[in-house]
Design brief:
- Belongs to the cation transport ATPase (P-type) (TC 3.A.3) family. Type IV subfamily.
- Its cofactor is Mg(2+).
- This is Phospholipid-transporting ATPase.
- It is a multi-pass membrane protein.
- A hairpin with a 5-residue loop joins strand 25 and strand 26 (560-566).
- The chain folds into 4 domains: 136-265, Calcium-transporting ATPase, cytoplasmic transduction domain A; 345-359 and 867-1103, no CATH class; 361-401 and 657-726 and 748-861, HAD superfamily/HAD-like (Rossmann fold, 3-Layer(aba) Sandwich); 407-424 and 435-656, 3-Layer(aba) Sandwich (Calcium-transporting ATPase, cytoplasmic domain N), CATH 3.40.1110.
- It has 40 helices and 35 strands.
- By secondary structure, the chain is an alpha+beta fold.
Length: 1210
């Protein structure tokens, strides 16, 4: 067992239990045979392509079936057809599929080569040399520079930044663009960029084996006789990007396929659609039916040979020893060959062409093109298009998928007045849009040009030196843990661990209160052009329990103040009684902000007495060095000083959704598609986004929060939720069928009494996914309209998808943008990657990709539905025309002595599927649509039949077979009866085999063509050309093949000389064709007429509306701006983890001291001095009412790694 005691890793023989490596010692590290840094995502190479690809293709039942038929056709004793009728289509199918697979794999090879051939500096032989990524090995020390990708999983050794910090962007891993901070050990940080010291570094690392846990690392570094613990905050993962750091050095721990990024990619599985799986079942059934019918016909031949065969031996002598039994045996195999057209190989050729064509439609769709990032939609696979029309569950990431991860300071409330809305001269409020004139911040040379605000009254209040407004922005400029960088005068760059906090500091910057720089004991800001430095006395940092942060500062005038911001419910409990009226007004504003889905914070302050603070500071110091109950003592001190606060106002930040997300979710919900959000974000963040994007709604009966910390708690919460949604359900039968000895394979859909939502935390989800509770969780979740899973790991995302796939008979789709979504994307039936600025790892593993979440509705409701509809129509019609074609042989067998004589001419048999009926059905399958895209969006319910498999199923297949059986009887009996005892106009005989064959095949072609016309909903010029052209081609080829010239060239191949000319000039022949065609389609027309009149489907109703409105196309749907009223509020303009407070006050500066620049501000109004937000808030009477709406538990990760060791006092 590993000394780390990691039970989660496999212990199979030969599996790596722990990793050992030594820096700068390639020989030692090679002995463990660790993976190199080369990656390989391709499947084939030059030598393995042909055998592997053919092996994969012949695993498809149909290909193997046709190979067997080809072998049978080579045997002359049993073959009635030439071998080329099978070998040509088979080779064509294999070649097209192989070419497509080769193209895909060549693209994968190119992608691998691009990555493997990147260059990085490696320390080899005591000097830095440029090497390819693929040549990097475990134990190497490499140098990274700013904006470079991290080459492999590295242990950070040193960096150019103070405290050996580095800033990394993890967009490639998790889709988040805000920077993360990593910090090296002090002992390795002392190595700096001294190549000699780094070359002498011989530290040994023992750590966990390769795994896919992005959020955890366990290991130790042994160096200089000392052991140092290693955790995730000292590790740089492959796929991250180095930002705002000139250089850093790292030791390679995991390389190539063993890196956490590649471990998260999971194993690529071959995805097949539900129609593919159904087709395999149907092909087996058809093959069984074929064997059964051939057996019946062979038995018929045996009986006929016994009873009537001797009558024909006079002019048809038998081979020697050719008995009746052997004749029946040969007849069996002959009919196997003749009747093989029930499943022709052209079916699979056509399917591939249809899928390819529908894939091109996605690639070419300009309405799914994102011009800002120059990103078109891309169908990265051609085999899953029709599955897009059957999606029931969508699993979505949040950050970067639903949201842009861009925080916008949207509105605020200051001293009872709301700012951020735009009003006209009549007092009417207007929606803010890009067409309106934004606030001009030209008075502020340090303003961020990217910041946009539309309410001019707020900047006027700032210029008029409103005391409360100044105090509000002064608090935002001082109360934070943001770090500033100013390399050129006026060019400020803020580094915030969360984009929320960065947005607030940027807002203060633009309104004239510019955070400029900080030291461990001071904060420098520019207030309306005046440089001021505040003494930073204490930071009362944010954590998941406090839900607030405070700073204690002394102004240049010596005034001592505590500034606090946090969740409004937390702040309200600590306000002075004099703020009651202001609380009521601010609460109304907070409700309005939350109703619009904005993230809210309350701001408050308090002036401190010097003597009280001196005593408090002493007690704080004693508590901070205490070895027992340190945290609880500090919390008590924080509670003591953070009371009797005076309210300043509130902020409202928009976690900017991607364009069209609420509308897309609304449309998908109308299509009965259930959306589950699986995110690594904290609960409160995800829940608020759920409301802002219409996933959760105030109109819901309830939103259940499952956050238990034990299996019993989670089970009870799930049970309570189910009892609320279905009070009449029996608990025992509903929740615990496995305990009653019942095995559950599929959970049927249930309907709740109302609309509900479910929010579950990651730690609760871990219990819910256990085998004893997974069914309870799944039933509860499926009763809800929306499900949000928070704080989930990449593995849990895949487990949730697998759970739904296992127990729900439904098609799933996963959509994400980061490496943490790859396992989920690969687990789902359909994987969609969001491409753009957040990284490409998810795209590389996806089946479809585009730039914006909103394009998902077009992918599913238009392309997916059309693809499914076309494929189902194609299969129904294809089976109909081929069953009809083949069954005629069966009826003819009873009239030809079961001799395996074909009804049709051999040329017609060969060309029927390749020429005469191929293009019309392809035209329908590529161009047909019941309604256009506008109507598809107006009626999302059109999508529901696909989820229920109504267009093609075993039932639909059986109907098709019955229809074919009827049509084949009509097509055989009517021409047979019409030609019996019939003569031509000139009195000559017409009833010969060739004339019968010609009449039957002509009737067949007309009948199936008319049937195609009935199936087609959307006629185009191409469709019309294909249909009429195919009929014209039939007659042209028929007259040519039955001509004198062809007979003279090859007499044996063209025995039907003159048949077409002699038969098709007779009126009774054409009358027979018309009669047969009418009788074939009459039952279909009657059935459809009655069905539309008595039981119309949603398609029938919409198509009727389309016909009514054809003259005036429907206007685009008008969408009013969604404004909700809600009592929900959330305050979390902080990081998702503990703040930077300890690091800021650690006694050592975080970044280089800012260059001293002049403020550059013009003087506006009088100069403000001190921090004195008195104003009108002092005159309000107390209320004392606690405000306690639901506030979710917020989990955070420790940032203790930011604490640094200060130099011991001398």
């Amino acid at each position: 067992m590993s000394f780390f005691g990691l039970e989660c890793f496999p212990k199979t023989e030969g599996a790596e239990l722990e990793r050992k490596l030594r820096a700068n010692d390639r020989e030692y590290n090679r002995s463990f045979k660790y993976a190199t840094n080369a990656i390989k995502t391709s499947k084939y190479n030059f030598f393995t392509f042909l055998p592997l690809n053919l092996f994969e293709q012949f695993q498809r039942i149909a290909n193997a079936y046709f190979l067997v038929l080809l072998v049978l056709q080579i045997i002359p004793e049993i073959s009635s057809l030439s071998w080329f009728t099978t070998v040509v289509p088979l080779v064509l199918v294999l070649t097209v599929t192989a070419a497509k697979d080769a193209t895909d794999d060549i693209n994968r090879h190119r992608s691998d080569n691009r990555v493997n051939n990147r260059k990085v500096q490696v320390l080899i032989d005591r000097k830095l040399s440029s090497e390819k990524w693929m040549d990097i090995q475990v134990g190497d020390i490499i140098k990274l520079e700013n904006n470079q990708f991290v080459t492999a999983d590295l242990l950070l050794l040193s960096s150019s930044e103070p405290l050996n910090l580095v800033y990394i962007e993890t967009a490639e891993l998790d889709g988040e663009t805000n920077l993360k901070v990593k910090q090296a050990l002090p002992v390795t940080g002392d190595l700096g960029d001294d190549v000699e010291k780094l070359a002498d570094f011989n530290g040994e690392v023992r750590c966990e084996p390769p795994n896919n846990r992005l959020d955890r690392f366990i290991g130790t570094l042994t160096y200089g006789g000392q052991k140092y613990p290693l955790d995730n905050e000292k590790i740089l993962l492959r796929g991250c990007t180095l930002r705002n750091t000139e250089w850093c050095y790292g030791l390679v721990l995991f390389a190539g396929q063993e890196s956490k990024l590649m471990q998260n990619c999971g194993k690529s599985t071959f995805k097949r659609t539900s129609i593919d799986r159904l087709m395999n079942v149907l092909v087996l059934c058809i093959f069984g039916f074929l064997v059964f019918m051939c057996t019946i016909l062979a038995i018929g031949n045996y009986i006929w040979e016994i009873k009537n065969g001797s009558n024909f031996t006079v002019f048809l002598p038998r081979e020697k020893d050719n008995k009746e039994g052997f004749s029946a045996f040969l007849t069996f195999w002959s009919y196997i060959i003749i009747l093989n057209t029930v499943v022709p190989i052209s079916l699979y050729v056509s399917v591939e062409i249809i899928r390819l064509g529908n894939s091109f439609y996605i690639d070419w769709d300009r309405k799914m093109y994102h011009s800002r990032s120059d990103t078109p939609a891309e169908a990265r696979t051609t085999t899953l298009n029709e599955e897009l029309g059957q999606i029931k569950y969508v699993f979505s990431d949040k950050t970067g998928t639903l949201t842009q991860n861009i925080m916008i300071f949207n509105k605020c409330s200051i001293n009872g007045k709301s700012y951020g809305d735009v009003y006209d001269y009549t007092g009417q409020r207007h929606d803010v849009s890009e067409h309106r004139e934004p606030v001009d911040f030209s008075f502020n040379p340090l303003a961020d040009g990217r910041f946009i605000f539309y309410d001019h009254s707020l900047v006027e209040a700032v210029k008029l030196e409103n005391l409360e407004v100044h105090a509000f922005f002064r608090l935002l400029a001082l109360c934070h843990t943001v770090m500033a960088e100013e390399k050129k005068e006026g060019e400020l760059f803020y580094q915030a661990q969360s984009p929320d906090e960065g947005a607030l500091v940027t807002a203060a910057r633009n309104f004239g209160f510019v955070f400029r720089s900080r030291t461990p004991d001071s904060i420098s800001i520019v207030e309306m052009g005046n440089e001021r430095s505040y003494e930073l006395l204490a930071i009362l940092d944010f954590n998941n329990v406090r839900k607030r942060m405070s700073v204690i500062v002394r102004s240049p005038e010596g005034k001592l103040s505590l500034l606090c911001k946090g969740a409004d419910t937390i702040i309200y409990e600590r306000l002075h009684q004099s703020c009651s009226k202001l609380m009521d007004v601010t609460t109304e504003h907070l409700n309005e902000f939350a109703g619009e889905g904005l993230r809210t914070l309350a701001l408050a302050y308090k002036d401190l007495d010097e003597e009280y603070f001196r005593q408090w500071k002493q007690r704080h110091h004693e508590a901070s060095i205490s070895l027992e109950d340190k945290e609880s003592q500090l919390d008590e001190l924080y509670e003591e000083i953070e009371k009797d606060l005076l309210l300043l106002g509130a902020t409202a930040i928009e976690d900017k959704l991607q364009d069209g997300v609420p509308q897309t979710i609304e449309q998908l919900a109308k299509a009965d598609i259930k959306i589950w959000v699986l995110t690594g974000d904290k609960q409160e963040t995800a829940e608020n986004i759920g409301y802002s994007c219409n996933l959760l709604q105030e109109e819901m009966n309830d939103v259940f929060i499952v956050s238990g910390h034990s299996p019993e708690e989670v089970r009870q919460e799930l049970r309570n939720a189910q009892n609320s949604m279905k009070p009449d359900a029996t608990v025992n039968s509903l929740l615990f069928p496995e305990e009653m000895g019942k095995s559950v394979n599929v959970i049927k859909d249930e309907v709740a009494d109302g609309e509900y939502g479910l929010v579950i935390n990651g730690h609760s989800l871990a219990y819910a996914l256990e085998s004893s509770m997974e069914l309870d969780f799944l039933r509860t979740a499926c009763l809800c309209k929306a499900v949000i899973c928070c704080r989930v790991t990449p593995l849990q995302k895949a487990q949730v998808v697998e759970l739904v796939k296992k127990y729900k008979k439904a098609v799933t789709l996963a959509i994400g943008d980061g490496a943490n979504d790859v396992s989920m994307i690969k687990a789902a039936h359909i994987g969609v990657g969001i491409s753009g600025q957040e990284g490409m790892q998810a795209v590389l593993s996806s089946d479809y990709s585009f730039a914006q979440f909103r394009f998902l509705q077009r992918l599913l409701l238009v392309h997916g539905r059309w693809s499914y509809l076309r494929m189902c129509k194609f299969l129904r019609y294809f089976f109909y025309k081929n069953f009809t074609f083949t069954f005629v042989h069966i009826w003819f067998a009873f009239f030809c002595g079961f001799s395996a004589q074909t009804v049709y001419d051999e040329g017609f048999i060969t060309l029927y599927n390749l020429m005469y009926t191929a293009l019309p059905v392809l035209g329908m399958s590529l161009f047909d649509q019941d309604v256009n895209d506008v109507w598809s969006f107006q009626h999302p319910q059109l999508y529901i039949p696909g989820q229920l498999n109504l267009y093609f199923s075993k039932k639909a297949f059986f109907k098709c077979a019955v229809h074919s059986c009827y049509s084949s009887l009509v097509l055989f009996l009517i021409p047979y009866g019409a030609l019996q005892d019939t003569v031509r106009d000139d009195g000559r005989d017409l009833a010969d085999y060739q004339s019968f064959a010609l009449l039957t095949q002509t009737c067949l072609l007309f009948a199936v063509t008319i049937q195609l016309g009935l199936e087609m909903s959307y006629w185009t010029a191409v469709n019309t050309f294909f249909v009429l052209g195919s009929l014209a081609m039939y007659f042209a080829v028929t007259f040519t093949m039955y001509s004198n010239g062809m007979f003279l060239v090859v007499p044996s191949a063209f025995p039907f000389i003159g048949t077409a000319r002699n038969s098709l000039n007779q009126p009774n022949v054409w009358l027979t064709i018309v009669l047969t065609s009418i009788l074939c389609v009459l039952p279909v027309v009657t059935y459809r007429f009655l069905l539309i009149q008595l039981c119309p489907t949603i398609n029938d109703k919409v198509m009727f509306k389309v016909r009514q409105a054809r003259a005036t196309p429907p206007p685009p749907p008008r969408r009013a701006r969604i404004r909700r009223t809600s009592s929900r509020r959330s305050g979390y303009a902080f990081s998702h983890a503990q703040g930077y407070g300890d690091l800021v006050t650690s006694g050592r500066f975080l970044r280089r001291p800012a260059v001293s620049w002049s403020s550059g501000f013009p003087q506006v109004g009088r100069t403000t001095t001190g921090f004195s937000p008195m104003g009108r808030s002092a005159g309000y009477s107390p209320t004392g009412r606690p405000q306690n709406p639901k506030v979710a538990d917020v989990e955070g990760t420790s940032l203790q790694m930011y604490r640094t060791m200060t130099d011991p006092p001398l």
